[in-house]
Amino acid sequence: MSQPCVVLATASYDHTIRFWEAESGRCYRTIQYPDSHVNRLEITPDKRHLAAACNPHIRLFEVNSNSPQPVMTYDSHTNNVMAVGFQCDGKWMYSGSEDGTVKIWDLRAPGCQREYESVAAVNTVVLHPNQTELISGDQNGNIRVWDLRANSCSCELVPEVDTPVRSLTVMWDGTMVVAANNRGTCYVWRLLRGKQTMTEFEPLHKLQAHNGHILKCLLSPANKYLATASSDKTVKIWNVDGFKLEKVLTGHQRWVWDCVFSVDGEFLVTASSDMTARLWSMPAGKEVKVYQGHHKATVCCALHD
């Protein structure tokens, strides 16, 4: 098989992972996943593998293959894995779980290399562009920075006590972080380099983005937009300069769980409980393609273009 230039995948409560031709909307490969639902999908930087975060394991599948079998399984979490991602060179993977831990996995060796205790269920983890800090958000409303060099928690924030932090996103240049919670609020901080080279948070903005849960927030690659996907069936696009509402993407019939930008920030893919994923044009603010084939809620999507 020739390597596709655009890798687009979705996962659903119907226990399948589907790969799609982005332009035609055709599903060209389905992986059956009977033993768990998938919470999160992430594609490796080299486009060779797809990680599926499940309960309680992570599985790595070859992108360019017809094999339904994973090439590797990562066990040691004891509950739903809610976050997964890769270091920029693809040497290691990080994960966060409802078991209250953040873990680091060396992809060249079996087993978990490091573990950080967050106590409360971890909903979201992002890697700072400096590649030396992980930022996690949990069910109790805590945001923590894990310094990989010092091997410890270097910073702790609680924007709203007992309000779960559902999603975190960091600007590509490392200058801003946004946290979205179950009350539809986004907290925005400017990230500063402290005296000890640790990252410091300076409050910048509080955005009441939705009336329902925000399930995913995401800054665009061009550092221009913030997308917020919500239980109110919409995705809102905010201009990062002043956080003014630019567009509301309407069309999904149920909760919108996940979204991912194309590398140029011109397109957005969304995943919804209405069993579809959709491709949106950012300049037009319109839906340009619907990916249909799942039989239950589509809860996550991954794009590498």
From TrEMBL:
GO BP of this protein: long-day photoperiodism; regulation of actin cytoskeleton organization; regulation of inositol biosynthetic process; regulation of raffinose biosynthetic process; TOR signaling
Task: Please name the PROSITE patterns in this protein's record.
Answer: WD_REPEATS_1 (PS00678), WD_REPEATS_2 (PS50082), WD_REPEATS_REGION (PS50294)
Localization annotation: Endosome
Chief localization class? other
- Keyword entries, A-Z: Endosome, Repeat, WD repeat
The ranges of the WD repeats are: 1-30, 74-108, 122-156, 207-241, 249-290
Instruction: Name the InterPro entries on file.
Output: MLST8 (IPR037588), WD40/YVTN_repeat-like_dom_sf (IPR015943), WD40_PAC1 (IPR020472), WD40_repeat_CS (IPR019775), WD40_repeat_dom_sf (IPR036322), WD40_rpt (IPR001680)
Q: Does the record's keyword annotation contain Repeat?
A: yes
Q: Which domain of life is it from?
A: Eukaryota
- Give the signal peptide range: none
- Offer a single GO CC term for the protein: TORC2 complex
Family listed: Belongs to the WD repeat LST8 family.
**Chain's role:** Component of TORC1 complex, which is an essential cell growth regulator that controls plant development. Acts by activating transcription, protein synthesis and ribosome biogenesis, and inhibiting mRNA degradation and autophagy.
Q: How does it assemble?
A: The target of rapamycin complex 1 (TORC1) is composed of at least RAPTOR, LST8 and TOR.
* Protein name per Swiss-Prot or TrEMBL: Target of rapamycin complex subunit LST8
Q: Which organism is it from?
A: Eutrema salsugineum (Saltwater cress)
